[in-house]
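Reproducibility note. Readers wishing to regenerate the assembly model reported in the main text can use the exact inputs given here. Chain order matters: entities are listed in the order in which they were concatenated for prediction.
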Amino acid sequence: MKPMYRLPSAARQLVQSFTGTIRLSLILFLALALASWGFILVDANSGFPDLFMAETWSSAAGFLGKLAGVGEEGTPAFLQGERWMETGILASKTLAMSILAIVFAGTGALLTFLPAARNVAMGELSPHRRATPGWVLLHYFLRGTFILTRGVPELVWAMLIIIFLSPGILPGAVALGLHNYGILGKLSAEVVEDTDPRPAPSQRACGAGGLQVMGYGIIPQVLPQFITYLLYRWEVVIRTTIVVGFVSAGGLGMDFRLSMSFFHYSDIALLLAWYLLLVIGIDMLCAGLRKLIRE
Amino acid sequence: MARPRATFLEGRRLVSLALLAALVWSIWQVQWDQPIIHGGGIGAAADLFRALVTPELSPSFLATVLKASWHTVAYAFGGITLAVGAGFSLGVIASGVLARSSTGRWSMIVGTRGLLALMRAIHELVWAWLFVVAIGLSPMAAILALAIPYSGILGRIYSEILQDVPEEPLSALRTAGASEWQVLLYGRLPIALPDMLSYTFYRLECAIRAAAVMSFVGVAGLGFQIQISLDDLRFSEVWTLLFALVGLILLIDLWSTWVRRSLVR
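Running the prediction on these inputs yields the following structure tokens for the assembly.
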């Protein structure tokens, strides 16, 4: 048993098992990674050399200490019950923002994912069982909205929306909703495209119309997966609400930004504590809901 | 025999009602006493949308866009390469496949899983802000901030994929006298690699978007340029930058979809 001398051959075998597209992509990935690191390290201000300087790490340790309330005048924020209550209200606003966002995204996706699926718009399951210009146009339009809303990050949506919506949790929820609408729409349309096509012809043979085929053949196959995606996105949304709050001025994000600017370190620690409580709470809730769906 | 009738507040219905109540409470949380669109908001929105048809296309600005795009790509790759390395190491430990005794395995799984959960609980931009304060404003702060939550996600997924490898080929290796390390290297990894690659490529798309946003804290990239143009109300430039960002993400998305399709085959 001398494994080590066989390692190179094992690695070579592994590489050789990838052919064509995959090998090309791996080479491209490595090339881009190397070029990126080269570019980053050549930059004199990359901050990379700083990582090997003692000052950097003592300042980082100092920051952690300040978060924990070291050297702060008066009682640190996270030891005052009153401050917990005040920031708790912000946390509840953040929670409300995430719920509104996921409802916006879910409703939007539910209304559009069927025509966005290729097989519903212009294939096997379409009303005329062939491509008609109206449906094809609708299909590509919806796919386009998915790409646009998904491609623009939540924070950038928030920066655009805050130009005309009043600050608060609503613009944040709209921004998060738009981005997640694109993601949920794309994912659920792909689920429809991957559904089993066999029930449809037999349902039609029994006299079912287009809507009935959808309602009894497609939706039941898709819905559990859709809810799973919705819960998964909610977990992501609650993590992102604080970031969107930086600009939309709703919930924990705004106070986080202000505390950062005013160097109120123990406040930052308190806000992070609420943030982690929300994230962990939602993760556990979603795990429970997923279990309920599977039963 | 008749099925026992479900009571009104049976499990799922109760959950649905609770979720509905949560929605009503959330709507109530919105400040409805202030106008939804603030004063001058309509005019600003009109300006924003008017600029959509006249994106800024002057060569000098396009050069800026190209440079910002490259910064975003470079930082995304910097972050994801670190995340693949750290995520893989942590994922192997968190899968518990290297432990022989069951207590050893469980302490490994629970400990590393907790660490991975903490890493991904905090959004990359929050990490970025913390890093900027802790080690100073530099591309490295953004790259590390990206790498931490992505290591958390990749580590968890890698560990699950490694655990889900079918047992039969592995026991064949063990019967032949292979150690757990050898089982990992010659059994689990070759079987798990396509799934791991597929997920990594999916995350690459997310990393590009995250790297663009990362510049919100002040690191060069598309997000930084968007912020500058928005602050100066130069909406034509904003649209050019947004098109560049969406185009870039679309490109990576097509690439990763292509890779994943070929991996499934």
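We highlight two features of this model. Residues 60-264 of chain B form a domain with the MetI-like fold fold (CATH 1.10.3720.10). The mean pLDDT of chain B is 86.
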